[in-house]
TrEMBL record:
<keyword id="KW-0560">Oxidoreductase</keyword>
<dbReference type="Pfam" id="PF01558">
    <property type="entry name" value="POR"/>
</dbReference>
<dbReference type="InterPro" id="IPR019752">
    <property type="entry name" value="Pyrv/ketoisovalerate_OxRed_cat"/>
</dbReference>
<dbReference type="InterPro" id="IPR011894">
    <property type="entry name" value="PorC_KorC"/>
</dbReference>
<protein>
    <submittedName>
        <fullName>Pyruvate ferredoxin oxidoreductase gamma subunit</fullName>
    </submittedName>
</protein>
<dbReference type="InterPro" id="IPR051626">
    <property type="entry name" value="Oxidoreductase_gamma_subunit"/>
</dbReference>
<dbReference type="InterPro" id="IPR002869">
    <property type="entry name" value="Pyrv_flavodox_OxRed_cen"/>
</dbReference>
<dbReference type="GO" id="GO:0016625">
    <property type="term" value="F:oxidoreductase activity, acting on the aldehyde or oxo group of donors, iron-sulfur protein as acceptor"/>
</dbReference>
<feature type="domain" description="Pyruvate/ketoisovalerate oxidoreductase catalytic">
    <location>
        <begin position="10"/>
        <end position="180"/>
    </location>
</feature>
<keyword id="KW-0670">Pyruvate</keyword>
């Protein structure tokens, strides 16, 4: 089973994001469930939603205590202690921010994570560009596809098309594709840098 926890604020489409991840998983022939939190959902209040993806039937619907992936839709939530709770070594982290992760003041939270599995993405800017408003959820799903490889971008795009009418769906698809390219470029750059470091280390040996 692969578990995803999404943190955001009311009005950012947190629950919708979990539902569309679940739908994308169904399209790939997997079992999935989307579970919303039951706290305050007023605009601006912290909201959490969960998505589980598996190759067999899922029965439990309890909150995800140990997520394999964490998506933070609102960067102001990054200092809340519960946001990173249960995050395992080797997990994936995607933060909606125009700033690099190194500048977000969460270095202690990143210490146990692989660099290839963490990324920041200015999803609000991408959404504003394609949708006309800074609703980051669908762009972040495109970034998640690039970061984790758990679901394909095509499946996520098809989930948008099943959820929204044509014009809105295609705008969200474009946002997701741009986000995918940006996160994939981040990962590619890190892999190149790692390769250069390994090469330098090898050539420096006597």
């Amino acid at each position: 089973m692969f578990a995803i926890r999404i943190h955001g604020r009311g009005g950012q489409g947190v629950v919708t994001a979990a539902e569309m991840l679940s739908q994308a998983a169904f399209l790939e022939g997997k079992f999935a469930q989307a579970v919303p939190s039951f706290g305050s959902e007023r605009t601006g209040a912290p909201v959490v939603a969960y998505c589980r993806i598996a190759d067999c039937m899922l029965r439990g619907r309890e909150p995800v205590a140990r997520p394999d992936a964490l998506i933070i839709q609102d960067p102001t939530l990054r200092f809340l202690p519960e946001v990173f709770e249960g995050m395992p070594v080797g997990g994936y982290l995607l933060v909606n921010s125009a700033r690099p992760l190194a500048e977000l003041g969460i270095g202690d939270r990143l210490a146990g994570l692989r660099r290839s599995r963490v990324a920041s993405l200015d999803a609000s800017r991408i959404a504003r560009s394609h949708l006309g408003r800074p609703l980051p959820n669908t762009a972040l799903l495109g970034g998640f596809a690039a970061l984790s490889g758990v679901l394909s971008l095509d499946s996520i795009a098809e989930a948008f098309r099943q959820r929204f009418d044509d014009t809105v769906a295609e705008a969200n698809v474009r946002a997701a594709f741009e986000a995918y390219r940006l996160v994939a470029a981040q990962r590619h750059g890190r892999e190149q840098l790692r390769g250069h470091r390994v090469l330098r280390a090898q050539t420096a040996r006597p």
